[in-house]
Design a protein that fits this description.
This protein is an all-alpha fold. Helix content is about 80%, strand content about 0%. The longest helix is centred in the last third of the chain and has 36 residues, at about 30-65. Keywords: Membrane, Transmembrane, Transmembrane helix.
């Protein structure tokens, strides 16, 4: 599950990096692309942490059952 999330994040990061114009029609410079990727990373970190916590909880429950 975490692998899928990581692949989606990488795909969207690639789209952000390789586009020349954003949705508002603003030309993307290298600095704007870096800022956008930083915002995307800040959004992704809590999601990944949540998945890791969920994985640990499920793993501990499975160990308690066995």
């Amino acid at each position: 599950m975490l692998t899928r999330v990581l692949l989606v994040w990488i795909a969207i990061a690639a789209i952000i990096w390789f586009r020349n114009v954003d949705g508002a029609g603003v030309a993307q410079t290298a600095q704007l692309k870096e800022i956008t990727l930083l915002i995307w990373l800040i959004f992704a970190i809590p999601v990944i942490i949540g998945y890791l916590i969920w994985f640990i909880v499920l793993k501990r429950k499975q160990e308690n059952i066995n």
